[in-house]
Amino acid sequence: MEIQEETGRFVLFNDENQEIGEMTWSDAGTEMMIIDHTFVDPAYRGQKLAEKLVYQGVEKARREGKKIIPLCPFAKKEFDTKPEYGDVLRK
C-alpha cells in the first residue's frame, strides 16, 4: 500500500498500483484546510486505511501550520476520538 499526495487529495494505491481510496480537502484561505471526503474501496475496508488517510491530512496541516475543519463524517469521528489531533483542529 502506498499513499501519494496530489492536488487537493491523498490517494491510496494497492500493491498493483490501483487506486483504492482517497481523502480530499480544500484550502480555506492560507491557514485552514477542510477535509470534505474520505473513501476506501469496500474490498479494503477494516484495515484502518481511512484512518491513515486522515492522518496524512493531519501531518500536512502540522507541516504547513494550518488548522483543519473536518466536514467529512469519517474525519469528524477521527477528530472526536483522537485527542492527539487537537493541535490542528479548528476550534
TrEMBL record:
Ranges where the N-acetyltransferase domain occurs: 1-91, 2-90
A Gene Ontology molecular function term of the record: acyltransferase activity, transferring groups other than amino-acyl groups
Residue ranges crossing the lipid bilayer per the database entry: none
Keywords carried by this UniProt record: Transferase
Pfam families xrefs: Acetyltransf_CG
InterPro entries in alphabetical order: Acyl_CoA_acyltransferase, Gcn5-rel_NAT, GNAT_dom, GNAT_YJDJ
Superkingdom per UniProt: Bacteria
Protein name in the entry: GNAT family N-acetyltransferase
Native source species: Enterococcus termitis
